[in-house]
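A quick aside before the break. I want you to see a complete sequence-to-structure record at least once, exactly as it would be stored in a machine-readable document. Don't worry about memorizing anything.
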Amino acid sequence: MSDLEGAGRREEAVASRTRTLVVCPYSTARASKDRGPARTPEARREEAEGLARAIDLDLVGSVLIGLAEIRPATYLGKGKVAELAERVQADTIALVVVDAALSPVQQRNLEKAFKAKVIDRTGLILEIFGRRARTAEGALQVELAHLTYQKSRLVRSWTHLERQRGGFGFLGGPGETQIETDRRLIEERMIRIERDLDKVKKTRALHRASRAEVPYPIVALVGYTNAGKSTLFNRLTRAEVVAADMLFATLDPTMRLVKLPHGGAAILSDTVGFISDLPTMLISAFRATLEEVRAADVIVHVRDIAHADSDAQAKDVEAILAEVGVAGAADKLIEVWNKLDKLDADHRAGLATGQGDGAPIAVSALTGEGIDALLQAIETRLARGRSLIDLDLEPADGQGLHWLYEHTEVMARRNDEDGGVRVTVRVPADAVERVKRRFGAAAR
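That is the input. The structure line, written in tokens, reads:
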């Protein structure tokens, strides 16, 4: 067993012994019409429980608390704090997860009242990301986000910086003792990480430039966490990316080649799942990774159409895309309604999909239903702005035919009686002259 695997096992062991209560505050005030579809409190609680289970916490229970207003000192009202404190002591709760963004003062006051550790939604998501990161880049991005978060609050320990991956000391171990963090050390470490991430950004730019030499367009999968992106990725590419019924099962981006109906190919990118109230520092830290989405030729927005909050989840994804600079990208966006297999016949019949260009495409990544239609839609969207070129190749120009298959989409091919080959290819507008120079008079 490697050191990293050993560290992961130890973290799971600590988490499984950490009796946890999830507290889900929600506003009882009337929601603004401008905010779009609102989530139900029950759906928010289900998601918060899923986040807790994502790092194997021993979930003892969860509680919904309606709030007319937020208290500056404790977020929750005094009566609720006292009531929760009694439950924490009675059930020997070691960790209370508050599904909201707490200020440092609120977190500290709740810890005093509960006599237990308290983390908020941001802290829990950071903990999950710390556990999930598998690449050096992912670990750097998560650590930078975590340091940004910790700058303003008491921290458990500095020891997490000595680890290459894993959680960040919320759940015990060496991080249990409360100590003051040296702000200068944090800032110096952040500067070093940002410098390393700048190198990653430059490397990614070089990779994109090299991919431009081989005209494989980029198709990026985006969507709410647990919408089924990785299962769809595996279905389209026949890869074996981890696809679990778990929030944030995929963190580090993965790329594979996918074959299109007419013999062309594209690079498919599976990205980190989005979630409501995603911490700002995480969006900032993962900007380098999300640039792959911004640079994509087609963005496939995968939605869990069977989820009760599918519309609200879609709004969250759209908001994050806008924040990373993918605004007004309707011309390259394909919406996919996944998990058809979870819908009954009446719900399936009511889906208005496939009605012309730009309509959502209903699929089941699990069973394969609708996948052919999705591949066709991707190919059609990529064809926008591309040109068709007819070529008459000499019988001896096998090398030229091979070049066409490698660098263009071969839409049609016919062998003549004299051994010559007539080929129709599709290429991006900026590659037309390159093909014509390569084949000269053979290009029509």
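Two observations worth writing down. Residues 154-181 have pLDDT under 50 and may be disordered. The two ends are 61 Å apart (CA to CA). We'll return to this after the break.
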